[in-house]
Amino acid sequence: MQVRQELRPGEDALRTRGQRLQDAELRGRALDLASVHVHRVEIDPEAFTFAVFDGDKVLRTGKVATGEGGTPTPPGRFYLTELIKPPDPGGDYGAYAFGLSGHSPTLKTFAGGPGQLAVHGTNKASALGGRVSHGCVRVSNDDITWMAQNLAIGTPVIVRN
């Protein structure tokens, strides 16, 4: 199996299935569809809200902060790529940070990295409900902790137009 993975807007790389896709290996095994969770996260940047779904059932909702002015949160279909637990849960990235498969349309680099988008907690809950970030989606530390405990890497994230 081969998949295309976006590295930066307009760039992609052809990846061949390897050890990192071990969860996708189903050959020779029966799949119990009743046990499969179809989680997704939907973010509405105009209403400053998120909702986590399991199929059609809403599991959790909350407030978000999004990108401001020259560093907007771009709309699109992304997925969770990694989960990081920052050393200081009271810091700028909160208790946890999920990397997203997308990148900033305006920042080629950020904090030494490639301008990757993220969903992360915040130490400033009062900023939720506004445009305050460099393109990332901020949620409360309670919400990001719940997400870290309940969402898998690969979970789709939809940022509406």
UniProtKB/TrEMBL annotation:
Record field: transmembrane: none
Pfam family, any one: YkuD
Domain annotation L,D-TPase catalytic: ranges: 39-160
InterPro entries, sorted: LD-transpeptidase, LD_TPept_cat_dom, Transpep_catalytic_dom
Active site: 120 (proton donor/acceptor), 136 (nucleophile)
Keywords: Cell shape, Cell wall biogenesis/degradation, Peptidoglycan synthesis, Transferase
Gene3D superfamilies the record matches: L,D-transpeptidase catalytic domain-like
Source organism, top-level taxon: Bacteria
UniProt pathway: Cell wall biogenesis; peptidoglycan biosynthesis
Cross-referenced PANTHER family: L,D-TRANSPEPTIDASE (PTHR30582)
Name by which UniProt lists this protein: L,D-TPase catalytic domain-containing protein
Species of the source: Actinomadura livida
